[in-house]
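TL;DR need structure tokens for one chain.
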Amino acid sequence: VQLVESGGGLVQAGGSRRLSCEATGFIFSTYAMSWVRQAPGKGLEWVSKISNDGSNTRYADSVKGRFTISRNNAKNTLYLQMDSLKPEDTAVYYCAADGQSYCTGSYCYSYRGHGTQVTVSS
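>> reply
TL;DR here they are.
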């Protein structure tokens, strides 16, 4: 199983960034997927979730209205469009396949990638 995130980098406050996550080694279309993030010195924070078929999405209050999660099951790829970025969005962003194998706080997952760094400058 592999989840490989890309698209991170340095962006100015108010800017946009699109993250991608390519999945291999499992049946991507059968899993709900999430983006989670970890800011410096803080724990893992759940950001957004999308159902296996893409019909339902949920967002943390901190990103609602600014971030959009989507997926392309034909390409085994998950996306996170991030707009109106703020310095407090600075974090390592991970994609994860929802499950019960590992839990952090109230969020549990089966697989997680190695992350991509997003840094928002003020």
